[in-house]
Amino acid sequence: MFSNIMKVINTLKAIKSKFKDILSSTFDDDKLVEDLKTKIERIMNQLLGKASKSELSTKDADDFRMYYNHILSFDKHVRISSLNSRQVLEKSEEEIFKKVTSLRKDILAFGLDAIKVCNALIKMKFFAENLSMFDKTINSEIDEALKSYKEKQGSAGIVRLTVELEKTEVGARLINEHSCLSGEDWRKRREKMQKQDDLEYILERLTGDDVDKNVLRSRYTIFRSTYDNLVSINLNLFDKNADKEPDLEMLVTQTKYLVQTVIQTSKFVTWKSSFMDKIPELVAYVFAIWTLQKTEYYNTMRGIEAAKAYLLMPHVGQVIAIFRLLGIGYKKDSIIPLRNVSNSKTISNDLVNNLVEIGTGEGKSVVLAVTSCIFALTGVDVNCSCYSEVLSMRDKSDFAASIPRIVL
């Protein structure tokens, strides 16, 4: 907007200069600049007025964001010597971060009063969600506040916070988006899904076409044994005195070695029975890498009882769903060719189609990610779709460190 305004003013100035002896009357370009200056000064005052309020409502935040963006655009495209738009932007930002810093100090001062701490966190999150120009910095402040709070109050303090935060929508988003809280949330979800870690419970309730529960049972046993062994070995090798991730390069190499028996041509990728027999082991390797890549919750809980409850680990329902999607657990065995279409190796009708129902919060994204990884490792092009761009970006971020590492 301001870029176009300045172009118009400069063009009119050029016309006035060039044709001042021809045109009988000219416009007052100085007055145009003064009018613009007056309007900008009013917006600056409105911005600083909003920034200096002790608390901001949603409307205040909307107004602040609008005024801030106007002044930011003005600062980028317009130069009027008597207006210091940059100083106003910095002053407004300073006022906002005074509030954020004050809330961060309050969190530590409130100590064991979980309700007051949660209210302060929710206020900080309000600023992050409604003032998008500062969201990364404010979210970092929240992370640091939680880290300091945990150092002072311990894991028990974090547990109290999550209990209180999950009562509100904003609190739930805080739990989901900030790792210090997410670890406790993950542990609680694992407790709620204990039945889904019962193989017989899942198999008894599993329905579908040509289901061979004996095959699923035996394949899951192979998966579980391999997965537990890989995770246990690598956690034991993990330097427990250093805050760093395990070295997973050897595990990645071993994972890729498992797919060497897959036959690939220009038009087909064929999964023979010898490879199908290795799928439980391959799934175990992929899940082990995912678990060991996500040890931040485990790291922060080391030294407390049942620290492994904070590891991200697959439950039985997820693994059985992946097996069915990959053609395991059917009463009829067959060689599965994955055909090439339009120069892309994609799944043909020879691979049994499945509709897998997974409840809310039970890990659909993990099932999709690991299934996609298995296909990609064998040379198949994979596309995943989701109704929500927000969820897609969240999942992309969640798996960015593990899945590409295995496939590439």
UniProtKB/TrEMBL annotation:
It comes from Didymodactylos carnosus. This is SecA DEAD-like N-terminal domain-containing protein. InterPro entries: P-loop_NTPase.
